[in-house]
Write a structure and sequence with these properties.
The protein is α/β, with parallel strands linked by helices. It is built from 15 helices and twelve strands. Helix 6 runs parallel beside helix 8 and helix 7 runs parallel beside helix 9. The relative contact order is 0.08.
Length: about 450
């Protein structure tokens, strides 16, 4: 009875029994195998903290690589650069940066033997421009430098741009030559000037036109004392112009004033000094001079050709520029007997034959000291010990009211022959006690009487 009622149970049991156990087991194993294979083929996912740590490590590695590349490039640049070369110009640096960007992940620099050195990396590296390290005691001194024209102020006149390049390369070197070239350049600047509406020439010309020219020339090479004196004079003339005067008349007045200044303070002054210096030369004299000075050369030739004096000249040369060779050739061509010495090593020997020393000054300080090319002071000291007179030729425009007792107060650093280990000064200062006479267009005076020349000049003006 009970069996008849539970008949459904025997039907269910055979269904489960009809499915073999071995068929079900392999199916389960296949699923597990597929799952394990899938999990093995997929990379393990990193957490946010792990990703951040990985990115930080990669960034640190890149920085280390860039730093190492920079150090290698700096070392190569330092080895390959010569002492007289102060580094690439701004244009060259800019060009190298552009090239590095175009090349992508490699930067090429010049090695010690001129061979290219390629540093590979994800970031292009440009070697920094080597800088001249100046000792602290010389940090107040400046030097000439080549400024790319593209970096000059937009208001700088093309004539002044060319003049600045000539001064920076010492193509125009002597103080009087630099002064004359500067005044002629300013004359062209004034001639091309037009006063903007609502302004006056007297108030607009100096700050907006002349000052950019002056700043550019000063950046190319420090101004000599004669340039500073002349620029102060020119600014004074501009300030004196009556605002009611028409612009054309004012410009003619300024340009005419510049012509007169050049004629009186430079041309006529040199002529008077040349004649006075030639009178000091006598027959059979032996004149010793240093390097090459235009006014000394004219005085010697004047004494030979105009005065008919028969004398000889000893030329001691500066071993760094050899300008004395030109002087020796020019004097020899005029029939003057010349003895040439290439450096100061022969100073003591040649002074034994000299009867007087004839040199020119870049400037005379108010206390009677002379500012002249380096080496002049050595000659003056040696001449003083032997009782030989030292005659200085100097235009009054080169006289300054400043005072100096050493060669470090005012000077220039030679940009071509200076490096981080050593430097050369272009000028030296000779105390007045080693000088015998100063000849200017206002007369011949003792070095201690140089302030009297300034007073005479102020009275004449």
């Amino acid at each position: 009875m009970s069996t008849a009622q539970d008949g459904s149970l025997p039907e269910a049991i055979p269904e489960q029994a009809g499915k073999p156990d071995h068929a079900q087991a392999p199916q389960t194993n296949d699923k597990n195998t597929k799952t394990d294979a899938t999990e093995t083929s997929k990379p393990a996912k990193l957490s946010g903290a792990e990703l951040k740590a990985k990115a930080k490590a990669e960034k640190a590695a890149r920085r280390a690589q860039v730093k190492a590349s920079k150090e290698v490039a700096k070392g190569e640049a330092a080895v390959s650069s010569a002492p007289g070369q102060l580094g690439p110009s701004a244009g060259e640096v800019k060009g190298s940066k552009a090239k590095g960007k175009q090349d992508g992940g490699a930067t090429t620099t010049s090695g010690a033997a001129g061979r290219p050195v390629v540093s590979k990396g994800p970031v292009s590296v440009t070697p920094s421009e080597p800088k001249l390290t100046i000792p602290e005691c010389f940090s107040h001194l400046t030097m000439a430098k080549r400024i790319p024209i593209t970096q000059a102020d937009k208001d700088v006149h093309p004539t002044v741009l060319a003049l600045g390049q000539q001064m920076a390369t010492f193509t125009i070197d002597e103080s009087i030559t630099r002064l004359k070239a500067t005044l002629l350049a300013f004359k062209k600047v004034i001639d091309s000037y037009t006063t903007p509406p609502g302004n006056t020439l007297a108030r607009h010309l100096t700050p907006h036109v002349l000052n950019p020219q002056i700043d550019y020339l000063t950046a190319c090479r420090p101004m000599c004392f004669s340039m500073g004196n002349a620029i102060r004079w020119l600014k004074l003339q501009v300030s004196k112009i009556d605002p009611d005067v028409p612009e054309s008349d004012a410009k003619k007045q300024l340009c005419g004033g510049i012509d007169t200044f050049i004629q009186e303070r430079i041309s006529m002054a040199d002529l008077v000094i040349t004649e006075k210096a030639a009178e000091k030369i006598q027959d059979s004299d032996v004149i010793l001079t240093f390097g090459r000075s235009s006014i000394v050369e004219r005085a010697l030739i004047h004494a030979r050709l105009i005065n008919g004096k028969k004398f000889s000249v000893i030329v001691l040369d500066d071993p760094y520029d050899r300008k004395g060779q030109t002087l020796a050739k020019n004097l020899t061509a005029e029939g003057i007997r010349v003895t040439y010495c290439g450096d100061l090593g022969g100073l003591g020997y040649n002074l034994q034959d000299a009867t007087s020393i004839l040199v020119s000054a870049e400037s005379m300080f108010n206390n009677g000291s002379m500012y002249a090319p380096s080496g002049t002071c050595d000659i003056a000291i040696a001449a003083k010990q032997l009782g030989i007179s030292v005659i200085v030729l100097c235009e009054t425009i080169n006289i300054t009211e400043r005072v100096a007792t050493d060669s470090l107060t005012y000077n220039e650093i030679d940009p071509e022959r200076s490096s981080g280990e050593s430097l050369r000064l272009l000028y030296d200062t000779t105390p007045d006690k080693y000088l015998s006479l100063v000849i200017s267009e206002l007369g011949s005076v003792q070095p201690t009487s140089v302030p009297d020349l300034l007073r005479k000049l102020e009275e004449s003006n």
